[in-house]
Amino acid sequence: MEILRAENLSFSYVNKYQTVNAVKHVSCGFEPGKTYAIVGRSGSGKTTLLSLLAGLEQPTEGDVFFEGKSTREMDCDAYRRDHAAVIYQSYNLFPLLTSEENVLYPMKLKKIPRKEALERAHTRLTAVGITQEEWGRFPSQLSGGQQQRVAIARALAAGNRIILADEPTGNLDISSGEQVMELLMELAHKEGCAVIVITHDLEIASQMDEIYTVRDGELITE
Q1: How many other CB atoms are there within 10 angstroms of residue 140's CB atom?
Q2: Is there a contact between 39 and 212 (Cβ–Cβ < 8 Å)?
Q3: Interatomic CA distance for residues 88 and 185, integer angstroms
Q4: CA atoms of 212 and 10, how far apart (whole Å)
Q5: Which terminus of the chain has fewer CB atoms gathered within 10 Å of its CB, N or C?
Q6: What is the pLDDT of residue 205?
Q7: pLDDT digits 0-9 by tens, 25-59
Q8: Helix (H/G/I), strand (E/B), else coil: 68
Q9: Tell me, what DSSP letter sits at residue 91?
């Protein structure tokens, strides 16, 4: 049974020169316990589609349904906090919080007891290769790859049932990227999450249970 569904989803915006139809009448579904790749060329609309699924943008037409309820009717900040964790390509870490504090932050919002939150944070930070020494460092003291791993740990630690990841291995070396993908696979297949990954890497996409290909804003294969 689907936990998340896009139904006839379209999104348009106006830039300085024209109206851009970034997503056009896309319908697709996502089930818990499965991994999905969204692939396509740069500018094809896949990142916009991810933003719509995450409630970061509202569609011009159509709906995103979480457990049968349209995100138009929901507090989208609460939706991301409680249900849909986003791994951003630009990390989006809080610069004045340490690695540990960044991972703890969404769990604090969810009122997870501190002892449990610390255990989760340390487990996920260790799993993505952030050492105990690095837990106390600020983002400015970390490399781009380390910041990406902290951002991934933050999304995984919160315990959300949907993981939306925009090029999660883009700033990682091959070994770290493989480690992260193994974690995402485990989240789906062992913990029952729906894991949705945007990637240019066809080798990564081939490991996913389902592949959606986007071209010029349209879903061309399912």
Answers
A1: 9
A2: yes
A3: 18
A4: 16
A5: N
A6: 93
A7: 999 999 999 999 999 998 899 999 999 999 999 99
A8: coil
A9: -
